[in-house]
Write a structure and sequence with these properties.
The complex is a heterodimer of chains A (437) and B (309).
Chain A lengths: L1 H34 L5 E7 L4 H17 L3 E7 L2 H12 L7 E5 L2 H8 L7 H6 L1 H6 L2 H4 L3 E2 L2 E2 L2 E13 H6 L8 H13 L3 E4 L6 H14 L2 H8 L9 H15 L12 H9 L3 E7 L3 H8 L4 E4 L14 E10 L6 H11 L2 H11 L16 H12 L3 E2 L2 H4 L2 H16 L4 H19 L1
Parallel strand pairs in A: 1-2, 1-3, 7-8, 10-11
Antiparallel strand pairs in A: 3-10, 4-5, 6-8, 6-9, 6-10
Helix pairs in contact in A: 2-16, 10-12, 19-20
Chain B lengths: L1 H5 L1 H5 L6 H33 L2 E2 L8 E2 L3 H8 L1 H33 L1 H4 L2 H13 L2 H12 L5 H8 L16 H25 L4 H9 L4 H12 L1 H16 L3 H6 L11 H11 L3 H30 L1
Antiparallel strand pairs in B: 1-2
Helix pairs in contact in B: 4-16, 5-10, 5-13, 5-15, 7-10, 13-16, 15-16
The chains are: A alpha/beta (437), B mainly alpha (309).
Amino acid sequence: MKSSTRFLAFAPVLALAVLGMTACGRKSDSGASANGSSGPVEIKFLHKWPQPVNMAYFEGVVKAFETANPNIKIKMEAVADEPIKDKLRVLMGSDSQPDIYFSWSGEFAKKFVSSSNAFDLTEALNADPGWKDSIMKAGLEPFTFNNKNYGIPLRINGKFFVYNKTLFAKYKLSEPQTWDQFMSTCETLKKNGVVPIAFGNITPWAACHYLTGLNQKWVPQEVREKDYDPKNGEFTDPGYIKALQYFKNLNDKGYFNKGVNSTEHNMMVETFAQGKQAMMYVELEEFQDVNTKMAGKPWGFFPLPSIENAPGNQKFLTGAPDGFMVSAKTKHPQEAIAFLKFLTNKENSAKLVSTLGWPSPVIGAVNSSNAPDFLVKGMEAIQKAEGMALWLDTDINIKISDIYLPDLQELLNGKKTPQQIMKEVQDAARQVASETK
Amino acid sequence: MTAEEDSPFRRQEGTSLRSNQNRSLILLYILPALLLMTSFIYYPLVQNFIYSFYRWSAFSSSKVFIAFDNYKRLFLDPVFYIAVKNNVLYALVSVLCQCGIGLIIAAALEEKFLRRYQGFFRTVYFIPAVISMTVIGLLWQLIYNPNIGIVNAMLDLLKLGRFAHEWLGDSNTAIYAIILVSQWQYTGYIMLLYLVAMQKIPAELYESARIDGAGPTRCFFSITIPQIKEMIVVCTVITIIGSFKLFDEIYVMTAGGPGRSTEVLATAMYRSGFRNDEMGYAAAFAVVLFLITFIFTLIQLKVSRTSEE
């Protein structure tokens, strides 16, 4: 009697323990089969396009790859644009790194390189010249550090002003080539009661894209390159202040819609498409979306106009490639590279263009047979540009961009002057430089 | 501990089982929970304290011991003070609004003439509390939108157009706009807690008070409030702790902007840890956050214990 009650008392505890053990056991079982020599090799693949339309494309590619390579299994995971920034940072500190992971180019990628989390792909690229030469230089270059390549671009993106052709024709306007023409275009529109530019800056990357181009145009190339390098950033060139003033001027003159700091970028795409504003600064990858929303109404695009007498190269374009890097901790680099090769081969790149309308850096992937006219022309503009100004927030150290970006909202609100902002940026740059040295 | 005194093991003492056997049995029973708590709560807590003395980023293995430098920097960081100010502001408004107005609404619903419709009002006021914060955040972002939002449109309609404003986009008003959303969301929840407490008050108390000539206001102050005193304190403390743990509202609606004007402790911690890769600095934020919530939790525990006795 006594012992049976005791047993009854222990039973739940025992049950729990047994359950725990079996759960653990099962886990290690599956782990062994994944890494074992007999079973297929598992490659973890992390990207940032969880939207159903985009997932369908990637699922298709993964399936085709697995059919062609039955010994490799791709375990795909997707996290949206904002959360992936955090997820990547957390994953890099753990042992469960994905074998292939998404990354923006520039400083964002460089951080993975300098913390020895990125696999050197130079050898793999050199071993297969056909693959290497099929990708645009402008796509590979921003993933190259110390002459070594660490990333394969999936897309190449540029930033352009799209404009409503109906409104432009109504007020006899043409695509502005210079900043002065741009300002007078805005003025004409405003006088006629049309809000010139649609702008949503509740998350300040939107303002940062304007500043990316303006900084590039206002600051001499070598000075900017030196400043953007965390080791010796100073940001003392007067061009930075000029850039901020030019940007602020657009707001002060009333060329943006009301409430820029409390409006979403996507919402403004909608209102632009409804014809409420005449222009909007968007990425090449958004062209498809703009085209759908315009629903047949004519629209065109032009790059950020050049600024007379500004010391930067006026033939640069704002934009950057993004793509994939391979983890330095991966146990199967060859398999991971094989998948990347498959993902960026001409066939899949052409499919990327035709199904998703994304600009691919694979030469010839965007052509008039598979891509709408606007995409072909956008790619031409990228190829014609003498260089790319990478997104400011991924091109400078995160601690500096953490000061720079929120301050852009304060600039628009009139709470901070360009001089105050640059002072704060300089202080942050000094601190970052002292920490990285 | 009161729980131990009430336990069946205590009552069985001296009958069939001996007390030291009971003790090991009790220990055995709490062991799984204790192990889970230790590995998922207490161990990370201690680790966090230790981490706050280092400079390190999530994906590099090197940690530099810098003693109290993270704390020194924290107390010189203007963002820290903005965050504390916003948390305190949030707590103050929430206590006044949720615990104050919630109480008034609850008392009104308990009045005889409204009691018949209480179910309806209870549901209506409570619904916002069960909607996901992300949905609410996006909804209110639209409501506040200066171009298509209903707030400014209503002001225009009421000939109050001069008060129309860029609510979330102006650093002077953004934090108040966010605080208001939380009041809208949680007043109903606190009201429900009060209602539960009020329904436990014996009806005879009100009857005899009424016979003695007390009006509804007198009844409210002399019967309702003293009878639900503990619930009021508990609600207040819950609200204050919630205010310091605040994160999602801010993250969804403004992400700390414009500038840094709506930053709170939790978002500042998140930003330094997961955006700026300063895990040590984020740990220092976490320690401060922990200390604040810990103090209020102690108060809450003390209060709820007095109510048990």
